[in-house]
Amino acid sequence: MGIPVRIHYTLWIVFILITWSLAVGYMPHQYPGLTTITYWSIGIASAIILFVSVLIHELSHSYIARKNGLPIARITLFFFGGVSEMSEEPQDPMLEVKMAAAGPMMSFLIAGVLAGVWYGSKTAHLPVSIVATLGYGALINVVLAAFNLIPAFPLDGGRVLRGSLWKHYHDLIRATRAATRISECISLLMMFGGFATIVFGDFIDGIWIVVLGWFIKSGAETSLSATLVGETLSGVMVRDIMTRNVLTVPPDISVEHLIADYLLVHRHGGYPVVTNGKTLGLVTMQSVRSIPKELRSVRSVEEIMVPIDRVVTAPPTLSALDAMKKMGKARIGRLLVTDGTQLLGIVTSGDVMRAVHLRQELGVGREQQWTPPAMVTVSKKYCIQCGGGLGTDIKVCPHCGAPQPDS
Question: In this predicted structure, what is the pLDDT of residue 398?
Answer without folding.
Answer: 52
